[in-house]
Amino acid sequence: MLAPFFAATGPARPARNDRDPFSAPIAPGSPFGVTLVDVGARAGLSSRCVFGGEYVKHWIVETTGCGIAFFDYDDDGWLDIFQVNGTTLEGFPKGQEPTNHLYHNNRDGTFTDVTVKAGLARTGWGQGVCIGDYDNDGFDDLFVTYWGENALYHNNGDGTFADVTEKAGLAQRGARPRWNTGCCFLDYDKDGRLDLFVANYVDFDLAHTPAPGEGKYC
Prior knowledge:
Shape: globular
Oligomer: single chain
Number of domains: 1
Number of helices: 2
Largest sheet: 4 strands, antiparallel
């Protein structure tokens, strides 16, 4: 399926009393006055969002979907878009695998796919994404979670990224894949350096999970 991209249209909002943020509440049942229009195709955001079977999903890993992030990766003052992507259990022919996508903002309401040029074309069960300048060099870096091996991408400051997962000590060891989901950068100890928090979901091992209808409870 294509990931929709919505732009809001509608009349200008009336001025509100700055002293009372609830001075003009919207009455129940009244029209909101804003319409959302899908401008994804017009903006050049045409990549397919893949996550398991398109019409039928048999396993829980196929149901969670992918994250997305707006960030100014090239520091030109315009927000760009990073779209996390997934895959299927059946796989794809070589060269046709879905990948994550980085879209550069053209400053005219359109975007250009610069994924390959930026070094971010990876295939896998992508889950979440978070943005943060972990090394304080002035450029936002990128962390992507997976069912499987996560990825930390260092922003080189020239429109490209380098996978520094191993170097940063974030490579995951073990025979079974970990189901990493949400993530965020934060400075929890106030030392001026961003730390990283990664949430995990259930312990899912496809090799030892009963097929739908074969288990005791499902």
